[in-house]
Structure formats: C-alpha cells, structure tokens
Amino acid sequence: xxxxxxxxxxxxxxxxxxxxxxxxxxxxxxxxxxxxxxxxxxxxxxxxxxxxxxxxxxxxxxxxxxxxxxxxxxxxxxxxxxxxxxxxxxxxxxxxxxxxxxxxxxxxxxxxxxxxxxxxxxxxxxxxxxxxxxxxxxxxxxxxxxxxxxxxxxxxxxxxxxxxxxxxxxxxxxxxxxxxxxxxxxxxxxxxxxxxxxxxxxxxxxxxxxxxxxxxxxxxxxxxxxxxxxxxxxxxxxxxxxxxxxxxxxxxxxxxxxxxxxxxxxxxxxxxx
Amino acid sequence: xxxxxxxxxxxxxxxxxxxxxxxxxxxxxxxxxxxxxxxxxxxxxxxxxxxxxxxxxxxxxxxxxxxxxxxxxxxxxxxxxxxxxxxxxxxxxxxxxxxxxxxxxxxxxxxxxxxxxxxxxxxxxxxxxxxxxxxxxxxxxxxxxxxxxxxxxxxxxxxxxxxxxxxxxxxxxxxxxxxxxxxxxxxxxxxxxxxxxxxxxxxxxxxxxxxxxxxxxxxxxxxxxxxxxxxxxxxxxxxxxxxxxxxxxxxxxxxxxxxxxxx
Lengths: 273, 263
Prior knowledge:
The complex is a heterodimer of chains A (273) and B (263).
Chain A: H1 2-9, H2 11-44, H3 55-64, H4 66-100, H5 102-115, H6 124-131, H7 136-160, H8 164-172, H9 177-213, H10 221-230, H11 234-262, H12 267-270
Chain B: E1 8-17, E2 22-32, E3 37-41, H1 48-55, E4 63-68, E5 71-72, H2 73-78, E6 82-85, H3 97-107, H4 112-125, H5 141-153, E7 159-163, H6 171-188, E8 191-196, H7 199-205, E9 208-213, E10 218-224, H8 239-260
Parallel strand pairs in B: 3-8, 3-9, 6-7, 7-8
Antiparallel strand pairs in B: 1-2, 1-4, 4-5, 9-10
C-alpha cells in the first residue's frame, strides 16, 4: 500500500507521505488517548479526580513541581541506571564464565533458573536492612537483581547456540577457546544480549521505583509518588508517574539505539533500514 | 608412493561410531599426490564425509593412520595445513565479505596491509570484486559459497577439503561454480579432496574419482579421469566424458546392489 502511495505522489512528497502513513496510526492513537484523558474520562464518563486526574491538571502539577520532580527523577534515574549496569554487567560476566566452563554451567544453571522464580521485589525491605534505608545502594541492588536473570539466561543462550559448523570452522583453523569467544560466540550472542538489555532497562526502573516505596531518600521519585498520593495530591502523584515513564522510555530507547548501531547486520535491525 | 611426497596418506583407516557400534569406515588406504583433485563419491552412509572430516581432524579415527604433509592429522590442523568448505557457506553475518575472507588471515596474525592485499586478490579470484563491503545476507547462495571458497584459500593452504560445497545450489549455478573452481584450482595449484553426490560433477572436476561402498564404508574402486586439462564447457560434451560417467555410475550401481543383498 505504501509503495503505491509513493508511486502515485512521487519524489520527496511521496517519501513524506510514506513516513506519515507509517506513523500516522500511532500518532492518532496517542492523540485519542490524550483526548480521553483530558475530556472523555472526566466530563463524559465522570471519572473522579482521585481515580484519574484530568491531563491538564497533571501537566500543571508537573510544571509547578518541576524542581522537586527534576531532583527526584535524577535520584531514581541514578538508582535504575546503576542497577542496570551492575546487574547486567555481572550477568554478562557470569554468562561468559558459564559458557566457557560447561561443567560449571551444568552444575549451576538449574539453580539459577530456580532462583529466577524468586520474587526479587520481596527482598526490598531486606536490602534496606543491609545497606540502610536512605542509601541508594539498597535500590540499586534490587534493580540489579531484577536485571540479572534475563540478561544471564539470554546471553548464555546466545553464547551457546552457535551453529556447530561455525565452531568446526574455527576448530579447523586451530583456534583456542579464547579466540572462538572473541571472534564467534560473543558477536553471535549480541542480538540475544540486546533483547535482554531492553527487558532489563524496563525492569531496572521498576526495581528503583518499587525500592523507593519501601523507604528511600524523601526526594526520590518513588517516595514522591507515595507521599503525594497519601496527601491526596493525585495530580502530583500522576505527574511523578509520567516522569518515571519518561525515564523508563529513555533507558529503553538508549538500549534500542545502541542495538541498531551495534548489530546493524542482524535481521531484526536491517529490516528497519 | 612414500608418505613424504604425498599430501595425504591414509593407511588401514577405520572408524566405528561408539553410539550403536556402527562401522562407518573400514580398511581405507588412499594416497593423494600434490596438485591432485580427488572426489569421494558414494551412496549415503558410505562414510565419505566422515573420511573427509578425519583427514581434517574434525573426527577421530578408531584405527589406522592419516598423514597430511607427512604429519599426523592433528598436527597438520594445528599447523593450519588445510582450508575447509562445508555444504553451507558458514559465513559470519556480522562480517562483511572482505572481513569473512580475512578471518583466517587475522587468526594467522597477518598485518593489515598484507591482509587487505590478499583479500582483494581473493575477491578477484572468485569474481566478487564489487562485493567486498557487502554483508553475506546481501548475496545469493552461489555467491556466498564463493566467499567461503575464497576464505578457505586465502592463506594458500596445501590442501583444500570440500564437503559437498555445491550440494545446496541449483544446477546452473553449480555448473558455473564447477568451472570457476577448476580455474581456481589450476591457478592456485592446490590439492583438493571433494565430497559429492553428483557423478557428473565428480568426473568433470577430478583427476581421480574414489567410489565408496556403504555399511561398512570401503573404497570400492578408483577411476582415473584422464580428460584433457584445462577443462571447459565442451568437456561435458566429449564422448570420453560420458564413458567415464558411465564407468563411475556402473561402479556405484554395483556397490548399491551389493549393499542391498542380505548378508
């Protein structure tokens, strides 16, 4: 359909209309969402402000409290980002070790998979006891623990699901294991790693905000949401949620951007180009 | 023939797979001289691929001896004495064509300038000059296999092992690549061991065709292919070509009938 449109209108106009056609449906849905939030829910359906405050009220609360929210955003962003780096970093190293020494992997993987079933969030009060309620580390550790498993499992799968012929090729060239990792297993694992990192980026933000709920710096985003709601300042609570969503999207977007750059060769990315 | 002057010298080779105790190969004796083009042909289960993999030290024999350039096969592998081409091109998706060809050279620690010079020579050889900066997925199956051949030959190994390299390609592409392989072989003066299912391909390419029988895999006979070199499109139309194809085919039929008889 879109190629037809390009052929009809031709040239630069055609490209612009192709672009519009690709993004128009999504933009339309976004607009309808905002419209519902602003008018349909409060005016037509009579949704009460404590259930969902009007969009313009949330936006003005966002503007009025911009300084406090900016500080809160920065604190929680640091917690989420620290957790993402720490959790993913350890998971990648662990995946490399487990893929390199298979017997060790075979011994540990069942337990790692079982550990994956632990609701990490349940540990939030405990990490507060470990690191101190006001310490950012108690939240970073929760965010890191949430990121750890998906990154470990996916990276390990990527490192080990290399085509046997590729391994034989490297073997024919008398490559040591280290070279096989550098030239073959690690590049082959990149698409798996990025899939995991995109999941982890979202989980890190969840970990940081929920970690805040269990007690954190009074200036953090999670505490801001909690106290605003406790004081019935719903529009401020929603404004903080909007900020948290934006941070989550930025983290995700950064990983997705890095992915497009690093694995330009992969089908998932080259289809977009 | 002495082991010294042979590129490959196989004596009393046997292979029993531990799983189920299947005898894949039995009593294989074969010598390959420098510059020869040897095809291994036979019905499925005759162990021709296994034999190739043993020569390349990718599988271990249970008995007998394989010498490559006068050395045991594992030492020859460590010395990087051979290049290998599989049925699939086995190119790395994240490397461009040029970088795929350069892979063995990187592993041999050639410097950048030397590598680049050789890669452009190899691109020339397989007629892919304009495709060095393409990625494997941007090429057709036949082109990918040419990249794979260029990679295997890039470091001028004494021996080229090819395991049904054109098996997955259509007939037209296959015949064109056969011609190309022959001219590469003439140009590089390498020794080739080539596994195939196709009788005409084996006869067209080889200096000798080794016909193998299944269960257990044995050498049933060797056909000398005394067709004039260099061979070209016309070779396939010569009466002598048909005679040799018939000779190989009859040997294969005999082998298969024998295999079907109850013991």
